[in-house]
Amino acid sequence: MRLGEQIEGDWQAALAALAWQIDCGVDEVVGDAPLDRYDLPEPVPKAPAPVAAAEPRGARPAPVSAAPAAPPAPAAPDAVALARASAARAATLEELRAAITGFDLCELKRGARSTVFADGNPAARVLVLGEAPGRDEDLEGRPFVGRAGQLLDRMFAAIGLSRQSPDAETALYITNVMPWRPPGNRDPSEEEIAMMRPFVERHIALVAPDLIVVMGNTPLYALTGRRGIMRARGQWDQALGRPLMPMTHPAYLLRNPAAKREAWADLLAVQARMRGTANGAQVPLSKE
């Protein structure tokens, strides 16, 4: 028998023997020598973790060094108090202009092109207080120079008053609560009004007019703490010890021409008040 045929025969015999064992249910192959499982080496136990020595009773834990505390943030400046102090130091209108120009705590100043201070004759008996500069006023640096300003000039010219007049009896002095234009011509906030009120009060004290005309809600609120110009207009009031006449803003009259009739009645009340004061009579604080 050849070697190859012998190997093939042994392989066939081995395969047949394996198949026979599988058929008999054999599922595990064991060695020729028996294994004593009770004679296996014992497992080596793990060394226990070291235990920290107990601290004596009453001992304080070692202090843990903490990171140094950050210094407290500086408190925000009191803008109203600083404005009041700055305004009080102004002894003249020029000093007041410089104080307002140098006041940097109002955010409106950052976006404005000009500081709009005033226009007209400081000796005037009538002071007109507006709200805030618009686009034209910001560009030119004077109050009431746009369409609303042109209407204001015509309104007061009708009762013989002008910002160009050198005569105190016929002169007009004009300023605003806010010297800087609010973005988008929005209304000034209460915080912004409160911040600039000391300058407004000092401005009026230095000019010392016989009476004040406030035009719009912002100056009415700045001097009286009340809003509602439509209810207040035409009714004499007082502010800072002076007669005060609330009127609607000329910009409102441009949008609502029918309201010019009421504005004309308010102007006649101002004229009557001035004439009564000039003749030595005191006109009562009521609607005229």
Structure description:
Strand 5 (237-239) and strand 6 form a beta hairpin. A 6-stranded mixed beta sheet has the order 1-3-2-4-6-5, with helices on both faces. Mean pLDDT is 85; it is low at 280-288. The radius of gyration is 47 Å and the shape is elongated. The protein has helices spanning 3-23, 79-88, 93-101, 108-111, 135-140, 147-157, 190-207, 217-224, 229-232, 250-255, 260-278, and strands at residues 118-120, 126-130, 172-176, 211-215, 237-239, 242-247. With 288 residues, it is α/β, with parallel strands linked by helices.
Question: Layout of SSEs?
Answer:
Layout: H1 3-23, H2 79-88, H3 93-101, H4 108-111, E1 118-120, E2 126-130, H5 135-140, H6 147-157, E3 172-176, H7 190-207, E4 211-215, H8 217-224, H9 229-232, E5 237-239, E6 242-247, H10 250-255, H11 260-278
Parallel strand pairs: 2-3, 2-4, 4-6
Antiparallel strand pairs: 1-3, 5-6
Helix pairs in contact: 2-7
Features:
alpha/beta; 40% helix; elongated; single chain; 11 helices; six-stranded mixed β-sheet; 288 residues
DSSP strand count: 6
- What is the strand arrangement across the widest sheet? 1-3-2-4-6-5
Average pLDDT number? 85
Instruction: Provide the low-confidence segments as ranges.
Output: 280-288
Secondary structural class = alpha/beta
Shape, please?
Answer: elongated
| Radius of gyration over all CA atoms, rounded | 47 Å
| Largest sheet entry | 6 strands, mixed
Spell the H/E element sequence: HHHHEEHHEHEHHEEHH
How much strand? 5-15%
Q: Provide a count of the helices.
A: 11
The end-to-end span amounts to: 147 Å
**What level of helicity do the residues show?**
40-55%
